[in-house]
Each structure stands twice: as structure tokens, then as C-alpha cells.
Design goal:
CATH topology of the domain at 8-184: Jelly Rolls
CATH superfamily of the domain at 8-184: Jelly Rolls
Distance between the termini: 39 Å
Strand content: 15-25%
CATH class of the domain at 8-184: Mainly Beta
Number of strands: 23
Shape: flat
Oligomer: single chain
């Protein structure tokens, strides 16, 4: 139940104008007070309570307590293009996004607006500004019809004072908003919203800096002992420099590790400078549970491990701050995903029934259409055997008939061609030296014969290595992922896995060369097996291609199943109406009808 407070002047004007009294609690027909452009749509109180139950920082509150909180909230709705918040204005309260989608905007130097991030249902807008007592650092604009619950600042702070757990969860949202506006990950989808993100707890940085601190003070001691001269002084200076560099490296390494929870997946980013770069993720629809593990030190300092379990494995978010709040966000996003899926299914069924009963041929199902390239029989493999093979070029990624094909990086090709190329250059040099008179090993006919034969063999070896590289490919089709290994003039090995069986993916970049040239491995976990896309260029993009193909495939399957269910339901209803229409009224039916006026 949401209550709106009216001033005395407005109430007096209502009486003078003989208007009806303000609506009672639970009647959401009044306009919102935070923005004159917003208004209140009708919304049942139970639906508001259900949204509050899903909100992660209100987790654990009873329904009665949530109803009491709802009395202090204001229900508002905005049309596409309307501003919920202007940049630089004072934030008067927290906005809980119930439905719709908003974009967070900043202003460039030329005055144009640029989209920083996007948020959807479940976001707590204005948390950062409220907790930091600052004005709005960015504007918020509705992208589509948007409904929010406005929580006035004074009431919110009273609640947070008596609920420290809710305060910790809201602080997580505030810090996540700040980081999401600073960092722009290239692997995020166009409309993917971040709801929680952060680094390892600062205590982990302190632990990592223990050894550099010891090295630093040992170096200072050696400098003092050697009076800034001699062997002790040189060792001390070396220790001080090594401690500073090692400490800087540890600080950078700590800052490069992130956990991210979006509206689509849970991600753990881990990067070791100049050595290792990986991204481990799992889609939300694969999540089974989120558990928390802490030790004595973690409970004292407020950090722990969050383990997100999937069907075949788990993703561990180690040593993160506020682990309970992070686990609550994961659970909230999973529950909202399930709720949205049920709502879309219900809307589709309603549209099908309306089309049958009312005869509206123009009524379309509100669910997402089957993506291009997918049919209702999406489970069948449609790829032709030769797609992606026998392409004699240096392309590392290309598409053909809806199939994306990847090859190993040029660095792998150069490694394979190094020895044949060296032999070719050596033979050319020997033949040229012999023909030019610098070498006198063979006469001209023998030089031409042996040299030509050697060039033919070395050239064939070079071409064989290139063909081996060109036909060793990895593919993402609309229904499968494939690892194709073909030996020139030899056997071909194909390993395939359906997209629906993919449980998680991981990206690895190992070594300085892999980081500099941006190539590495993509590991795809499929049940008890694993498919490796080895040495591919831009492995993060390859991972995204797999994720998008899987989402499109699953969406196609869901659409096909839902359509089949709707068709069956419509067929049953049609048979029912035909049976009713075919029956003739009897005398007993007439008597029963006469009972009612």
C-alpha cells in the first residue's frame, strides 16, 4: 500500500471545488509528487509487495513489515524520454525500479548526452548519491514506460538506522553504480545492466603488501647499516626498488580482479599483469544456488567467498566484501528472471485466448520472436559438412551461411611455418650462392636439380603446414559448437556439442605474448566434457559469440515450446466450443435457466 501526502492548501482547494476526497490507501490513482511529469498507474498492493520481496536489501523482512514500508513509498510512472533525475540536482530519495528500463546519462564537453549504463527492474536508483550525500552526478531518463517506487530520504534513513544488513546491501548497490559508471567492459551486451560488482576486500591487498613492506624496511635497514655506501647500501637500494615495484604490481593486480552480477549472468574477472587474463561466467538461468563461506578473519573484517553453483560446476567469487549482500543480489536476479519468463508466458497465452474468442487476427504474441536463423525445429543440426573448410586465406574469423568460423592466431601459424620458412630461405641462399660463384659444391645441372627438388619439398612442407592451420577450425553454428581438426590428405576429426548443453565458459590468456597480441583459449564446459577453442584471436569476443548463440537458441526453443503449448490450449478450447455449440438445449436446461431472473 502506497500513501501520498497532500498539503493543507491542496486539501482546502479540493473541498472548495467540491472534488471527491483523496483515495484511500491501496488506491494508486493519484499522481506522484516527486516530478510533475510523472503520474500513478493503477497497481495492486499485492504486486507492490511482491516487488519489495524480491528487492535484495529488503530480504528477510516479513510481509507485514513490507506493507508498513509500502505506506511510506510513492508510486510513480514515467513515459519514454522523461527525466527521472537531472544531473546536479539534489536527490530527495531512493527510486526502486519496478518495471521498465532507464539509461544513465552524462554530459560530454560539447554538451551532448552520452549513455553510461542502463538499468532495469530491481535497480535502486540514487543509492550512491544518498549514501555519499552528494548531488546527482548523472541524469536518468526513461527508455520505455517505467514504474518506480519513490522512497523519501528521511524515511529511508530511519529504516537503515535500524537495519544494518539492509544498509550494507544498499552500500553494495551504491558502490556498484559508481564502478559501473567508471568502467566500461567491452564484453557487456548492448542492453545488459550491472547490478553488483566490486573487487576483493581491501584486507586482501594488505595481506599481499606484507612482503613488499618487509622488503622495504629491510632495504632501509641495509642502507642505514652501510651508511649509504658499500655492498650493504647497494643491496639495500636494490631491495627498496624491488619492494616498491613488487608492491605496485600487487596493487595493480588487486585492482584488476572484479566480480560482476548482471541481469543475464554472473562473472568473475581475474587478471595477472603480463601473465594471465581470464573471464569465468555462467548464465543466470543455469544458476542453482549461491552459498557463502567465511573464516574467523573474514567474519571479523567483513569478507568471504561466494560460490555460485551451476548444473556442472561452480563459480567462486573469492574474498569479496559483503558476501551476504552479493549472494542476495544473485538470488534476486535469478528470481526476477524466472518471474519475467512466467509473465511473458502468461501474456502469450492471454493473447492466444483473445485471438480465439474475440477473433482478433491482428493480435500478436508479446513474447520475443524466434531469432533469425532459428526455426521451430531448432534442435536439428543444419550445418553442411564443408562450411568453413578449404578457405585458403589468412582470416581469423569469418561467417558463412549462419556459421561463425574461427582459426588459431597468426602467432600459432608463424610458429608452424617457422621451420619450413627457414629451410626455404636456406635453400634459396645456397642455390643463389652456388649459381653466383660464391659456393662451389655442385655443378650447374646438379645445383638446379637438387635445388629444385629441395625447394619443391620445402614448399610442399610449407603448404602442408598452412593447410593444417587453415583447416584446424572452431565453429559456432545456430545449434552447435564444433571443433574441427582435419589433416591435409588425412583424417578429419569433429567434436560437436549442442548449445543447450553448454553450462559455462572460461577465457584464458597466458603469457606476455598472448596478452600483447590478444589471443588465448576459450574453454566450454559441456556436462562432464570440455571443448577448447585454442589460440583464438580476441577470446573474449569468441566467448560472447558463444553466449549470444546459446541465448538465441534457447530463446528459439522456448518460443517453440510456448507456441506448441498455446496451440494445444487453443485446440482444446476450440474443441470445447465446438462441443458446446453442437449440443441442443434440453427441457431440463430451460428449467434450470428459468430459476434465475
Amino acid at each position: 500500500m502506497v500513501r501520498f501526502r497532500l498539503g493543507r492548501d491542496e486539501l482546502r482547494e479540493r473541498r472548495l471545488a467540491k472534488e471527491p476526497p483523496p483515495p484511500k490507501r491501496g488506491d494508486y490513482s493519484m499522481r506522484g509528487l516527486a516530478d510533475p511529469a510523472c503520474y500513478n498507474p493503477p497497481m495492486p498492493a499485492d504486486e507492490v509487495i511482491r516487488h519489495l520481496q524480491l528487492t535484495h536489501f529488503l530480504r528477510g523482512l516479513s510481509d507485514d513489515r513490507l506493507r508498513q514500508l509500502a505506506d511510506e513509498l510513492e508510486l510513480q510512472q514515467y513515459e519514454p524520454g522523461q527525466m527521472l533525475q537531472a544531473r546536479g540536482e539534489s536527490v530527495g530519495g531512493l527510486r526502486l525500479l519496478l518495471s521498465g528500463r532507464v539509461e544513465v546519462l552524462t554530459q560530454d564537453r560539447d554538451g551532448s548526452l552520452q549513455v553510461l549504463t542502463e538499468d532495469e527492474s530491481g535497480a535502486a536508483l540514487g543509492a550512491y548519491e544518498l549514501l555519499r550525500a552528494t548531488t546527482a552526478s548523472a541524469a536518468i531518463r526513461a527508455q520505455e514506460p517505467t514504474t518506480v517506487l519513490f522512497w523519501p530520504k528521511r524515511s529511508l534513513f530511519r529504516f537503515l538506522e535500524s537495519h544494518p544488513t539492509a544498509l550494507a546491501s544498499l552500500q553494495l548497490s551504491a558502490e556498484s553504480q559508481a564502478l559501473a559508471r567508471q568502467l566500461r567492459f567491452g564484453w557487456l551486451g548492448d542492453q545488459e545492466a550491472i547490478f553488483a560488482m566490486g573487487r576483493r576486500h581491501p584486507a586482501q591487498l594488505v595481506f599481499r603488501l606484507t612482503l613488499p613492506f618487509v622488503m622495504f624496511f629491510v632495504g632501509i635497514g641495509l642502507l642505514w647499516w652501510g651508511n649509504l655506501a658499500g655492498w650493504y647500501a647497494w643491496a639495500g637500494a636494490l631491495a627498496v626498488v624491488a619492494a616498491l615495484l613488487y608492491g605496485l604490481w600487487q596493487w595493480i593486480d588487486w585492482r584488476n580482479d572484479y566480480f560482476v552480477v548482471t541481469d543475464q549472468r554472473v562473472v568473475w574477472l581475474e587478471k595477472v599483469v603480463a601473465i594471465y587474463d581470464s573471464r569465468l561466467e555462467a548464465p543466470l538461468h543455469q544458476v542453482l544456488a549461491a552459498s557463502i563461506t567465511t573464516d574467523v578473519m573474514g567474519r571479523w573484517l567483513g569478507y568471504g567467498d561466494v560460490t555460485v553453483k551451476t548444473y556442472t560446476g561452480q563459480i567462486r567469487l573469492p574474498h569479496i566484501a559483503r558476501p551476504k549482500a552479493v549472494a542476495a543480489v544473485v538470488e534476486e536476479r535469478w528470481r526476477r528472471l524466472q518471474l519475467n519468463s512466467r509473465q511473458e508466458d502468461r501474456a502469450d497465452k492471454t493473447a492466444a485466448v483473445r485471438q480465439l474468442l474475440v477473433g482478433e487476427q491482428a493480435v500478436q504474441a508479446e513474447s520475443k520472436a524466434v531469432p533469425a536463423g532459428l526455426t521451430e525445429t531448432a534442435g536439428e543440426e543444419r550445418q553442411e559438412p564443408e562450411v568453413g573448410l578449404n578457405h585458403w586465406n589468412f582470416e581469423l574469423r569469418f561467417e558463412e551461411r549462419g556459421v561463425i568460423t574461427y582459426r588459431k592466431h597468426w602467432a600459432v601459424l608463424l610458429g608452424m611455418l617457422a621451420l619450413p620458412s627457414f629451410v626455404l630461405l636456406l635453400l634459396v641462399g645456397l642455390i643463389g650462392g652456388n649459381l653466383g660463384g660464391l659456393l662451389h659444391w655442385f655443378d650447374l645441372p646438379a645445383t638446379l636439380l637438387l635445388g629444385g627438388l629441395g625447394l619443391l619439398l620445402a614448399g610442399s612442407w610449407w603448404a602442408y603446414q598452412f593447410a593444417d592451420w587453415a583447416n584446424d577450425i572452431y565453429q559456432v553454428s545456430p545449434t552447435h559448437i564444433l571443433d574441427v581438426y582435419r589433416r591435409p590428405l588425412g583424417r578429419e576429426l569433429r567434436r560437436a556439442a549442442p548449445l543447450e548443453n553448454i553450462l559455462s565458459t572460461e577465457v584464458d590468456r597466458r603469457g606476455l605474448i598472448g596478452l600483447l597480441l590478444d589471443f588465448g583459449d576459450v574453454r566450454v564446459n559441456v556436462g562432464a566434457e570440455q571443448l577448447d577453442f585454442e589460440g583464438v584471436f580476441h577470446p573474449g569476443d569468441v566467448q560472447q559469440d558463444i553466449a549470444r548463440a546459446q541465448e538465441a537458441f534457447m530463446a528459439g526453443q522456448r518460443a517453440a515450446r510456448e507456441k506448441q503449448q498455446r496451440d494445444e490450449m487453443v485446440e482444446w478450447l476450440g474443441a470445447y466450443h465446438e462441443e458446446i455449440a453442437s449440443r441442443k438445449p434440453t427441457a431440463q436446461d430451460d428449467q434450470e435457466l428459468d430459476v434465475y431472473p
